[in-house]
Amino acid sequence: MTLASRVIACLDVAGGRVVKGVKFENLRDMGDPVELARHYAAQGADEITFLDVTATVDARETTYDVVQRTAEQVFVPLTVGGGVRSVDDVARLLSVGADKVGVNSAAIARPELIGEIADRFGAQVLVLSLDVRRAPATPSGFAVTTHGGRTLTTLDALEWAREATERGAGELLVNSIDADGTRDGYDLDLIRLMREISPVPVIASGGAGSVSDFAPAITAGADAVLAASVFHTGALTVGNVKDALRTEGILVR
Questions:
Q1: Structure confidence by residue, pLDDT tens digits, 47-103
Q2: How far are the Cα atoms of 78, 87, 98, 114, 219 from residue 125, in angstroms, in the given order?
Q3: Which domains does the chain have, with CATH numbers?
Q4: Which residues, in sequence order, are bridge partners of residue 233?
Q5: Active site members
Q6: φ, ψ for residue 117, nearest 5 deg
Q7: Given 3-state DSSP classes, what are the helix, strand and coil percentages for the chain, each rounded to the nearest 5?
């Protein structure tokens, strides 16, 4: 059975507001997360991803009140990431309405966290978020970063993704920092490589600029395509994206 490809709207949140930049820099205000989440759910988004992009950098927790208000307004799966450091953080996010939880920096710092979360809540709850940069010194040519893309590690992105899925990550959110906000299209090389090594669903993130960018990402191996700024500015709707995928013969919900 062929699974339908998912279209995910992403809310990068800082200070309780949705923000968007280019390559994780020069963030500008794009609106209220609760209103935007409701708007995208009404457009037909299959999921909403809520990323508190400054929580780790500011060494604080995710803004639980905003997550709860968002969850109360949308009835599609809600993934929340940013500042998640423990099993207790995951439990609290699930209690305020998150369906899935994304981990990144804390899992790199202590990989055992992945297994702890998966063992308690199930792999389906755990999304490993990878903020990836091209890095010629690594075996795959890609390295992961921490702290909202600010800190480049020496960790090979593919090796880390392989280890994380073995430890229990149920999904990979693969965000290309090099493509982020550029609207030049997804990093198809990165998606292909992740698809080759991943036994779990791969979400492509970073670089969507036009309706023609989404089908190539699915063809390259993504199970879902995520976008932010093209939706925030009104350049595209979720419906536009799904229509374009259908035109290419790709099954969507």
A1: 999 988 765 555 555 578 889 999 998 999 999 998 899 999 999 999 999 999 999
A2: 10, 12, 9, 11, 26
A3: 6-247 (3.20.20.70)
A4: none
A5: 12, 131
A6: -70, -45
A7: 35, 30, 35
